[in-house]
Amino acid sequence: MNKISFKIGLLFFVAIFLLESISMFFLHNNIIHSRVHDELSALQTRGNNHREVLQVSFHEETIKHIAMMEARTDSQVILTNPNGTIYMSSNKVTDEMKKIMKSTPKNVPHAGLILEDDWKKATYISSISPVVIDNKVNGYIYMFQNTLKIKNLISELNQHFLLAGVLSLLFMMIIITFLTRVVTHPLIQISEATKRISKGELSVSLPKLGKDEIGGLGESIRVLASDLDILKNERNEFLASISHELRTPLTYIKGYADIARRQDTSDADKDTYLGIIFEESVKLSKLVKELFNLAKMDENTFSIEKEEVHLQPYFQSIVEKVSPALKEHHLELFLECSAGLYAQIDPIRFEQVILNLLDNARKYSEPFTKISLIVSEESGKTHIKVIDQGRGIPEEDLPRIFERFYRVDKSRARSLGGTGLGLAIVKQLVESHGGTVAVTSSKYAGTTFEIVL
Fold first, then answer.
1. What are the CB-based long-range contacts (under 8 Å, 24+) for 215-223?
2. Domain end: 298, 329, 357, which one?
């Protein structure tokens, strides 16, 4: 049996055993007390009945008749005078009986009383009933019953309780074994699944484990394995992309550096090659910087220092900064922002967001089209839209547009100068501000990025 089954089974066993033991202990004591009380009450009642007969007819024949009746039973009756002298006995009077009779109190109530009730140690239990005629005590009726009868009764009762206890334990062990298997079997399956996950086997499957907490745990494990599988694939793609992005500029740099070092290379060609090397170095530096920023964001070490910013002049300064580059590509940039809008943002980090979106719009817009930057407030939230009239994004690419190194137009990726990290950085920075970013697009009908703060 595995450890968890043993622990749960042992816990159930101890708990139920203690509960059953305590219950059976109190039940046993109560039954014994009740049976002994019934025997004592019956003995006293019989003595009182004999007393009633004698009070009506205190004659020799009546006394003999009472003695004859009790002689055929398991009890013994003794009639004494008020001074204690034995007048009649249904059987032989033993020393133990005489000892009990000597303990008779002076004033015995008319209802009688129990003289001896210690059935465990004494040989007899006993009662006394006074015979009162004309308001005068004419004698006492002593009733004796051997405690062996009660002891045999208790012994039989103990045997029944022992048998019931053994059967209860066996039944309890069967139930506990069944319950522990029912409870622990799903846990064992979950444990085996987590072991396979730890070994890299992420395509684990668990059967339906119900809708309780164990079922919820199993579903969480299944979702975790699925997410880890996705992350593993994304990591492999990410590493492959990094390898490609680093290898390409390094290949250019190494290749043109080798050519420039040749003695037969003219000065003009050397300048051209050095220019290419410089451009590739800039791209490589930009890539490493963006990777570094993303790594800091993932580790939550990328600080966001918010302050209240007046949005109209803030976005106007960004527009003025990027307008010359857009004009070189024959693109117009329009800003629409109310003068009274304010927002809690990190102006430096958020400028990076807007610049990345505008640069993305520039890359994928055709000449002589316009780009719109629209800022508004709706339901207490700030909405920022960057709208272009470019080629648009195919519907199948939209879900992955914010993934690292993902490019829609892979064939033109290097000619456009992108690293494939710009939109991933946008998403990270917007979420760091507590906002959301979404994209809508139609092919050949433009793209809209909307940020909601």
1. 215/186, 217/190, 218/186, 218/189, 218/190, 218/193, 221/190, 221/193, 221/194, 221/197, 222/193
2. 298
pTM: 0.47
Among 309, 401, 323, residue whose Cα is nearest residue 355 = 323
358-385: pLDDT as tens digits = 988 888 888 889 999 999 999 889 999 9
pLDDT tens digits, 87-119: 899 888 898 998 989 888 888 898 899 998 888
Give CA angle at 75 (69, 77), nearest 5°.
Answer: 65
Q: What is the rounded distance in angstroms from the CA atom of residue 223 to the CA atom of residue 204?
A: 10
Residue type for 282, please?
V
308 three-state secondary structure? strand
Q: Which domain holds residue 149?
A: 3-153
CATH number at residue 321: 3.30.565.10
Interatomic CA distance for residues 215 and 210, integer angstroms:
5
Return the bridge partners of 132, or none. 137
| Structure-block tokens of residue 420 | 């494939």
